[in-house]
Design brief:
Shape: elongated
Structural class: mainly alpha
Order of helices and strands: HHHHHHHEHHHHHEEEHH
Strand content: under 5%
Number of strands: 4
Largest sheet: 2 strands, antiparallel
Distance between the termini: 116 Å
Number of domains: 2
Number of helices: 14
Length: 334
């Protein structure tokens, strides 16, 4: 074979590829980051008083009440000790390192289904990215009759003014688990059957496209998202009158608990359970009454007025009201 010929002329240059920074800039452009931060400053998550005051530095609370605590929990699985200088949440509280760098990789620190605190043998799955929320927005304890058949003679001691699910058990409400399912006339729906879980999500409702000062990183639920899903023309969240009905039941149950002496307080100063720490001669009640209180305070502090899971919330409240009516009748008979 003879020697090789001379090289031919260079071909035409190909079309330039996509800029390697384009995917990053979808989120990390200056304009987009400023918009997200502006939305976040509207959120209660950005309020230092909620994160830091009282709970932010305490080892047992810091997991959800400070930036430093949540990052430790997400990274190490625990908070190592009290935090001397806790701070409020920020972007990298929830966002860490990317894994795939694809379009839906938002670098969330946690997104797997959660083993709930009230029973870590169970799984609470709010679906993908919404599971990040469930790590904190869940009950911190089991209801007083959990795992047992409550008899009329059973009693329960409330030992703290903070007794109850905690101040934001929305994950349990959406999943339909962890509250006191007192027997009554209304059947409880199957766990995980709420349409706001199967057909919507925390992210879909609270982080819909930012418009009218709602959605996005404000986390304020979007009425526009409600209207899109329900094919409605709402100007609030009271679809089908659910919030009105639930509010009325919450007031009715509260008044029953006041009459039974389980709680004290008023609208101006708030309501709290009568407990053995603050009331040396009080705090012990029939278990069913404490179950009803657990439901009332947990659903009051859910703050959705039933929207998160209408069937579950209405069943809990109606059956609690019926049970407390029986308790009041028994008290009157004696």
């Amino acid at each position: 074979m003879g020697p090789g010929g001379a090289d031919g002329a260079d071909g035409t240059d190909g079309t330039d590829g996509v800029d390697g920074q384009v995917t990053c800039l979808v989120c990390h452009s200056g304009t987009n980051m400023e918009a997200k931060q502006g939305q976040f400053w509207m959120s209660a998550h950005a309020v230092g008083a909620i994160a830091v005051d009282y709970a932010g530095g305490r080892q047992s609370c810091a997991q959800c009440h400070s930036h430093e605590g949540f990052v430790q929990f997400a990274t190490l699985g625990e908070v190592l000790g009290d935090i001397s200088n806790p701070s409020a949440w920020e972007c990298n509280t929830c966002h860490g390192l990317h894994e795939t760098f694809e379009g839906q990789d938002y670098a969330l620190r946690l997104y797997a289904p959660v083993n709930p605190v009230f029973d870590n043998t169970l799984t609470m799955d709010l679906g993908g990215n919404s599971n990040l929320c469930a790590n904190c927005h869940q009950s911190r304890r089991a209801e007083p009759g959990y795992g047992m058949t409550v008899a009329p003679t059973d009693s329960f001691e409330i030992t703290s003014s903070h007794y109850g699910p905690h101040h934001g058990a929305q994950g349990n409400v959406v999943a339909g688990m962890g509250f006191a399912e007192i027997p009554g006339s209304v059947a409880y729906p199957e766990q995980g059957s709420s349409k706001h879980l199967t057909q919507a999500s925390c992210v879909g409702c609270h982080m819909a496209e930012f418009t009218d000062e709602e959605g996005g990183h404000s986390f304020i639920p979007s009425v526009a998202a409600c209207n899109e899903c329900h094919d409605a023309d709402l100007d609030d969240y009271n679809y089908g009158g659910v919030q009105t009905e639930v509010h009325e039941m919450l007031v009715e149950l509260r008044d029953q608990l006041l009459a039974l002496g389980v709680i004290e307080g008023d609208d101006e100063h708030g309501y709290h359970p009568v407990n053995s720490r603050d009331y040396p001669d009080g705090g012990v009640f029939p278990t069913v009454q404490v179950q009803a209180f657990f439901n009332w305070v947990g659903l009051e502090e859910d703050r959705s007025l039933g929207v998160h899971n209408p069937k579950y919330v209405k069943a809990l409240l109606r059956n609690s009201i019926e049970a407390m009516e029986a308790e009041l009748n028994a008290l009157a008979a004696n």
